[in-house]
C-alpha cells in the first residue's frame, strides 16, 4: 500500500536542495550537464537559491495531481464497442499493476531504470554511468530515473493547450527544477509500485497509444496482463523513442531495439540463455488493432453522432459544452447505448440497397422501441466523411435539428395521424363521413389555431393525388390518404389540438406562426425520421409517449454509475384512441398502400409524399418497434430537389411516392428484424358511441357528411 501522503510543509526547500546538492557535487567533479539541467557552482549563490526557493514554493504539493486522462468508450446494447473518444494525446486506458504482466514490469525496469527499487527520486549511479557511456562510446544514454520520467510526463499530461505543452517540455532552469520537485514529492508521497504503475499508464508507446493497456491492445490486440516476453521487450523499448522505434512504420528498428532490451534483461539475470535465444529469433508478431477515435470510425457513425450530441446537451456532464466535450474525451467514461447491432445492420443494408451515396437523394431510417423510447438504429445513405465526390457528409439527416445541422424535411401525409388522433380524442366517431370532392376550396379563417381563427381571409384549395370514395370516413379517408377529407376534418378539430398533440408525441415544433397553418395536416413542418419514429411509437405503446434516447447509463472511470437515463414516459392519448388509430393504420398494410410490405406479423403504417415529390415517407410499426423510412431529393449540398424521374439506387423512380420509394426500405428492414420481434397483435378498439369493431365497420355512418 502507498504510504500516507506527507504534508507539503515537509517538502521544504531543504529537501529539494539536498538532491540538488548531490547533483551539484557530481557536476563540479565531472562538469556534467545532468539531463539538460546545468548545475554549476553558482547553485550555491543567493540568486540561484532564491530561484530554487521561489520555484519550490510555487509548486503544488500533490505531485500526481489526480487521475490520468483516459479515453471513453461507447457500447452497443449487447456490450460491443461502437466508438472510442480521446483527445489527440490521451488514447489511454488505465489498469492496475496487477493487470500488467510481471514480465512487462521487469522489461521496463531493466531497460529504463534497473535500480528503480533501490534509489530515491534521483539515481546518481545511473547518471554517472550514462555520462561515462556517452563520453567514451558516443552513444547517447539517458540518466533519468523512472520517477523523473514520470514527473516530466505528468507535467506534459496536465497541459491543456499547445502553449502549456511547450512550457512543460521547455529546456529551462525553472522547468527542470519543477520536474525535480515533482520527482521528490512522488517518492515521498507514494510507494515504488504506485510510481511504476502510474508510469506504465502515462508513458507514450508510439502510434497514438498512451499507456501500456492501449499499447498492448493496439500492437498485439491483447490486454496488458497477457503480454509475453518478446511483446513486453518490444513495448519497453518504445518509450525511449516512440516515433523512431514505432513498429508499424519502422519494424527493423523496432526489432533491433527489442533485442537490445532482451539482452539487457539477460545481462541483469532476468531471463536465461534459452529465453534470450528464443525471444531474439522471434518476429515482432504484430496484430495491429487500428486506433478508433470519434464517430467517423464508429461502426454506426450517425447513431454515434446522435449519442454524442445528446450527451453534449446534457448539463449533468458539465457546465458548458466545452466541459462536456472534455469529460467525454478524457474522463474514461463507459457509455452504454440503446443501439441493437442486428437492427442497425438491417437498416444499414436497407438504405444501402435502395439509395446510393452519390444519388441526388438521401435515404434515412430510424427505429424506436415503443414503451421505452430506446433508439435501436439510425442509418442514412450518405456516409460520414469529407469527400463530397463520394457522397460523404457530416450532416446527420436522421435526427432533430436541435441535435444536428440538418433542417429536416417536410413530412407530408404522415402528419394526418395527429389530426386523426385529436379527432378521436375529441369524441369524433371513426365512422364520421365527410363529402370530399377534389379539388376543394376552403376559407382559411375557418381554421382555428391556438390563438383563435387563422388570420388570413384568403381561400385555400386542396386536391387529391389519387381517386377516393366520395364520402370517406376516418378509416377510409386515412387508408386512402384523402387530402380533401383531412383538411375538412382539421376544420372540425381545429389546428391547435393536433399541433399540441404532435409536440407531446415528440415532434419538435418551434415556430407556431409558420406551423399552425391549414396545411398542417398535410405535413408542411420540417421534421426528422427520428422524431416521426418516436411519435408513431406512441401509437404502438397504446398512447404512452416516451422521449427518444440513445443512452441508458454512463459509468465513470471506476466503473461506478455516473448517470442513469431512465425512461421518460407520459400518457398523451387514451388507450382506446391509440387502439383505434392502430386499427385504422393496419388497414394501410392489409390491402392499402403498404400491402406489399408485410412481414408476416401485425403492422400498421402511413405513407407521406410532400409537394413536388421532394420527399417521400413510410412510417410504420409493430407492437414492439416503430420504424420510419424517408427518401428526400437533395443535391450534394443537401438542398431539396424533386425525386420525380430520378434514378434512386439504380432504379428509375418515375413519379415518387411514399409506398414506392420509401416503402421498400421500410419493408426490407422490418423483414430483416422480424425474427427478433414478438409479433404480438394490436389490441382491438372497444365500441364507443357507434357500433364498430376492427377495420371493417359494421355500423351506419353517422350522417355527418360535411
From TrEMBL:
SUPFAM superfamilies (alphabetical): beta-lactamase/transpeptidase-like, Lysozyme-like
Annotated region described as Disordered, given as residue ranges: 686-706
Enzyme Commission number: 2.4.99.28
Catalysed reaction equations from the record: [GlcNAc-(1->4)-Mur2Ac(oyl-L-Ala-gamma-D-Glu-L-Lys-D-Ala-D-Ala)](n)-di-trans,octa-cis-undecaprenyl diphosphate + beta-D-GlcNAc-(1->4)-Mur2Ac(oyl-L-Ala-gamma-D-Glu-L-Lys-D-Ala-D-Ala)-di-trans,octa-cis-undecaprenyl diphosphate = [GlcNAc-(1->4)-Mur2Ac(oyl-L-Ala-gamma-D-Glu-L-Lys-D-Ala-D-Ala)](n+1)-di-trans,octa-cis-undecaprenyl diphosphate + di-trans,octa-cis-undecaprenyl diphosphate + H(+)
Keywords: Carboxypeptidase, Cell shape, Cell wall biogenesis/degradation, Glycosyltransferase, Hydrolase, Membrane, Multifunctional enzyme, Peptidoglycan synthesis, Protease, Transferase, Transmembrane, Transmembrane helix
Keyword Lyase carried by entry: no
Enzyme class, UniProt record, top EC level: transferase
Membrane-crossing segments per the record: 20-49
InterPro entries: Beta-lactam/transpept-like, Glyco_trans_51, Glycosyltr_51/Transpeptidase, Lysozyme-like_dom_sf, PBP_transglycosylase, PCN-bd_Tpept
GO BP field: cell wall organization; proteolysis; regulation of cell shape
Keyword Metal-binding: no
Polar residues: bias regions: 687-699
Every Glycosyl transferase family domain range: 79-266
Ranges of residues in domain Penicillin-binding protein transpeptidase: 364-631
PANTHER family: BINDING PROTEIN TRANSPEPTIDASE, PUTATIVE-RELATED (PTHR32282), PEPTIDOGLYCAN GLYCOSYLTRANSFERASE (PTHR32282:SF33)
Protein name: peptidoglycan glycosyltransferase
Amino acid at each position: 500500500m502507498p504510504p500516507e501522503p506527507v504534508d507539503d510543509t515537509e517538502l521544504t526547500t531543504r529537501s529539494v536542495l539536498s538532491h540538488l546538492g548531490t547533483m551539484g557535487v557530481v557536476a563540479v567533479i565531472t562538469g556534467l550537464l545532468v539531463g539538460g539541467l546545468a548545475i554549476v557552482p553558482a547553485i550555491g549563490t543567493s540568486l540561484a537559491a532564491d530561484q530554487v526557493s521561489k520555484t519550490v514554493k510555487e509548486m503544488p504539493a500533490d505531485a500526481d495531481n489526480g487521475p490520468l486522462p483516459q479515453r471513453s468508450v461507447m457500447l452497443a446494447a449487447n456490450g460491443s464497442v461502437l466508438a472510442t473518444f480521446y483527445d489527440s494525446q490521451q488514447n489511454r486506458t488505465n489498469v492496475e499493476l496487477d493487470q500488467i504482466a510481471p514480465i512487462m514490469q521487469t522489461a521496463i525496469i531493466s531497460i529504463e531504470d534497473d535500480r528503480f527499487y533501490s534509489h530515491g527520486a534521483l539515481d546518481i549511479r545511473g547518471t554517472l554511468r550514462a555520462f561515462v557511456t556517452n563520453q567514451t562510446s558516443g552513444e547517447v544514454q539517458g540518466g533519468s530515473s523512472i520517477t523523473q520520467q514520470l514527473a516530466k510526463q505528468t507535467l506534459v499530461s496536465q497541459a491543456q493547450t499547445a502553449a502549456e505543452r511547450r512550457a512543460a517540455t521547455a529546456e529551462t532552469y525553472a522547468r527542470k527544477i519543477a520536474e525535480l520537485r515533482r520527482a521528490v514529492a512522488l517518492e515521498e508521497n507514494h510507494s515504488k509500485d504506485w510510481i511504476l504503475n502510474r508510469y506504465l499508464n502515462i508513458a507514450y508507446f508510439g502510434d497514438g497509444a498512451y499507456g501500456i493497456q492501449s499499447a498492448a491492445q493496439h500492437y498485439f490486440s491483447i490486454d496488458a496482463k497477457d503480454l509475453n516476453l518478446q511483446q513486453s521487450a518490444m513495448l519497453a523499448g518504445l518509450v525511449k523513442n516512440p516515433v523512431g522505434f514505432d513498429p508499424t512504420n519502422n519494424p527493423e528498428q523496432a526489432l533491433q531495439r527489442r533485442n537490445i532490451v532482451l539482452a539487457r534483461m539477460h545481462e541483469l539475470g532476468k531471463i536465461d540463455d534459452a529465453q534470450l535465444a528464443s525471444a531474439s529469433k522471434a518476429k515482432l508478431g504484430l496484430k495491429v488493432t487500428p486506433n478508433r477515435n470519434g464517430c467517423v470510425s464508429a461502426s454506426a457513425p450517425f447513431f454515434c453522432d446522435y449519442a454524442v450530441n445528446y450527451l453534449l446537451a446534457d448539463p449533468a456532464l458539465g457546465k458548458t459544452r466545452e466541459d462536456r466535450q472534455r469529460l467525454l474525451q478524457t474522463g474514461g467514461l463507459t457509455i452504454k447505448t440503446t443501439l441493437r447491432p442486428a437492427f442497425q445492420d438491417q437498416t444499414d443494408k436497407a438504405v444501402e440497397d435502395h439509395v446510393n451515396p452519390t444519388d441526388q437523394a438521401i435515404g434515412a431510417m430510424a427505429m424506436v422501441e415503443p414503451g421505452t423510447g430506446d433508439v435501436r438504429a439510425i442509418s442514412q445513405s450518405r456516409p460520414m466523411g469529407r469527400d463530397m465526390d463520394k457522397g460523404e457528409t457530416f450532416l446527420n439527416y436522421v435526427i432533430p435539428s436541435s441535435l444536428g445541422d440538418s433542417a429536416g424535411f417536410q413530412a407530408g401525409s404522415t402528419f394526418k395521424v395527429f389530426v386523426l388522433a385529436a379527432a378521436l380524442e375529441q369524441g369524433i366517431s371513426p365512422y364520421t363521413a365527410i363529402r370530399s370532392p377534389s379539388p376543394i376550396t376552403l376559407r382559411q379563417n375557418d381554421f382555428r389555431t391556438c390563438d383563435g381563427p387563422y388570420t388570413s381571409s384568403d381561400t385555400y384549395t386542396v386536391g387529391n393525388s389519387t381517386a377516393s370514395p366520395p364520402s370517406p370516413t376516418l378509416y377510409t379517408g386515412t387508408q386512402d390518404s384523402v387530402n380533401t377529407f383531412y383538411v375538412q376534418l382539421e376544420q372540425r378539430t381545429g389546428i391547435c389540438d393536433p399541433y399540441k398533440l404532435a409536440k407531446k408525441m415528440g415532434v419538435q415544433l418551434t415556430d407556431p406562426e409558420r406551423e399552425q397553418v391549414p396545411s398542417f395536416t398535410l405535413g408542411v413542418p420540417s421534421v426528422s425520421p427520428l422524431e416521426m419514429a418516436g411519435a408513431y411509437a406512441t401509437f404502438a405503446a397504446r398512447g404512452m409517449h416516451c422521449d427518444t434516447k440513445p443512452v441508458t447509463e454512463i459509468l465513470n472511470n471506476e466503473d461506478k454509475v455516473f448517470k442513469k437515463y431512465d425512461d421518460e414516459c407520459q400518457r398523451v392519448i387514451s388507450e382506446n384512441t391509440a387502439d383505434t388509430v392502430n386499427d385504422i393504420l393496419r388497414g394501410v398494410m392489409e390491402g392499402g398502400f403498404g400491402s406489399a410490405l408485410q412481414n408476416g406479423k401485425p403492422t400498421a403504417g402511413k405513407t407521406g409524399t410532400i409537394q413536388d415529390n421532394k420527399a417521400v415517407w413510410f412510417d410504420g410499426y409493430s407492437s414492439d418497434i416503430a420504424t420510419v423510412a424517408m427518401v428526400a431529393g437533395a443535391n450534394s449540398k443537401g438542398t431539396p430537389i424533386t425525386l420525380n424521374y430520378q434514378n434512386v439506387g439504380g432504379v428509375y423512380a418515375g413519379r415518387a411516392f411514399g409506398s414506392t420509394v420509401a416503402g421498400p426500405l421500410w419493408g426490407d428492414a422490418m423483414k430483416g428484424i422480424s425474427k427478433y420481434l414478438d409479433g404480438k397483435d394490436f389490441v382491438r378498439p372497444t365500441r364507443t358511441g357507434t357500433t364498430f369493431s376492427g377495420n371493417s365497420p359494421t355500423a351506419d355512418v353517422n350522417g355527418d357528411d360535411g
